[in-house]
Amino acid sequence: MAEDEEVLVITVEGSDHPGIVAAITSKLAEFDVNILDISQTVDRELFTMLLFADISESNKDFEEIKEGLQEVGEDQGVRVTVQYEKIFRQMHRV
Amino acid sequence: MIYDSDEILETLKMVSTENLDIRTVTLGINLRGCSDPDLDTFLEKIETKIIQESNKLVEKAEKIEKKYGIPIVNKRISVTPISEVIGPNEDRDIEEIIRVAKKMDEVAERVGVDFIGGYSAFVHKGITNSDEKLIESIPKALGSTKRVCSAINVATTKAGINMNAVNQIGEIIKQTAQETKEQNGLGCAKLAIFVNSPLDNPFMPGAMHGAGEAESSLSVAISGPGVVKSVIENQKETDFGELSEKIKRTAFKITRAGELIGREVAQEIGTQFNIVDLSLAPTPAEGDSVARIIEEMGVERCGAPGSTAALAMLTDSVKKGGAMATSHIGGLSGSFIPVTEDAGMADAVKDKSMSIEKLEAMTSVCSVGLDMVPIPGDTSVETISGIIADECSIGVINDKSIGVRLIPVPGAEAGGIVEFGGLLGESPIIKVSDFGCKDFVDRNGRIPSPIHSLTN
After folding, report:
1. What pLDDT digit, counting tens, does each position of B106-122 carry?
2. Per the CB < 8 Å rule, is A1 touching B2?
3. What residues make up the domain containing B35?
4. Which residue of chain B is at minimal alpha-carbon distance from A61?
C-alpha cells in the first residue's frame, strides 16, 4: 500500500438487517471516498463488515468522515469504528 | 485483503473489552533556563516556558487518539527536578519554594493536564542546600496542590544508600499524610522514593525530565494487563515456553501501538520523541490487573507460593516483546504491582494471601517497588524508613530501579479499608511488623555501594 494514500479501516459490527452496507457505502460515495477492499460476514445474525478506504481525494477531512460514518452507524443501530490503517500495520506486521 | 479479519477484530477487542489504552503521553520540559533572583520573574518564566511547550499537548493528543481509535487516558508534563531549578538561588525560604509548586499546579490546570511531575531531588550521596529546602517543603507543597508530584532519589547502585536522606524521608512521608489527612493521606500518593531513578520516567509520581534530556521531548507509557490476561486465559495445558511466547507477541503489539502514537503526538506538537515505557500498569477496572494475570497462570491467589516466579516470567516476557517493538525503551519498563490501584492485589490483601513481606519479595523481580501501599497511620517514622531502606537494598544490590510509595493512612488500623477513588482505587490497610528498627536507621551516613564482581 503506497505511503501517500490515506487509508482508513472502517469496521462495522452489529445485528444483521438489510441496508447496512448500502447506508455506509453511499455515505462514502457522498464524501468522495474510494473503497479499496471490502469483506462482510454474518455469523449467527452478527453482522461484521471490514472496509478499506482511501480518503486522499475526499472532499471531507478525517474527522468529518469519522463523524459522518458514526452517525450512519447510529441510524442503523450498528457500531462503526474508523481508524487509520497504519495502526494495524504497526501492530500486526514486524 | 491485506490483513486477516481476525487481526483487525483483535485490535478492536483489545480496546473495547480488554482495556488497552495508552496510559499517558508525558511531555518533558527543561526549566533550568528559568532561574532568576527575583521570585516573581522566576515564577513568570516557569509559567511562560511550560505553556509555550505544552499548550497544544492535550488538543494534539486527542487528535491522534481519534485517528487511531486507541484512547490516551492521561496527558501529563514532567519538568527538570525542581531542586536543580531553585539551586542558583538557594537562599529562598520554604514558603517561597512552595510558590513554585503552586505555580506548577496552576499552569498544569491551565493547559489541561492531570499531573505535573518533577518537584523532585537527587540525594543518593548527599543533600545540597536546595535539596534540603525542597524536601522540607514537600508536605505543604503536596498538601496545597492537586496536580504536583514529587520523587526523591535516595540511593543508587554506584553510590549506595544515603541513610540520612532515608531517615529524613520517613518523617516527610508522615507529615505529608498529616497535611492531607482529610483525604486519607492522599498527598503520599503523589510522592515516590526512588532507587536508581530513571531520568526519563513518564509515569507519575516519579516522572521527571532529568539530566541528559533535550530541551523538551515526549515519552509514552502503554498499558495492557487486561490484554495480556486475555491471551493466556484458558491455557492450562500450555507450557512456560509457549506462555512466554504468547505474552511476548502481545507485548510487541501493544508497544508498537504506543510507539506510533507517541511519535505522532511528538511530531504534532513539534518536539522530539523520547522513549516508550513498556510497563504493564494496572487500573482498578476489573480485569485490568497484574495480580489477575498471575492468578491466570495458575497461582490460586496472588501472593501464594509461585507468585514471584510468575511475576518474574511475566515481566521478562513483556520486556522481550517490547524490546523487539521499539528501539527506545526507557522509564521503569517492568510490571507494576500497586496495591490500591490493582483490584486483584487489593483482593489478595483482603484474603490475607498478600503481606508486605511477600510484596517486598515480588518487587525484587518487577520494577516499581512497594507501590500505593496503605499502612497503619501510627506506623513509626523509623519503621517507614526501615521499609524504604529494605527496598533500596533490593534496587542497589540488583542494579535496578525501584520506587516506594507508602501511605500511612491517618487514623487507620491494619485491616481497615481505605478508598482513594478513581484510578487510585481502594484496598485494606496492610499490617507492618510490630518490631522496630530505630537503632539501625538512626545510624548516620551511607550504606556503601555493593561489589558487583562476586555475584552470589
Report:
1. 999 999 999 999 999 99
2. yes
3. 23-195
4. B67
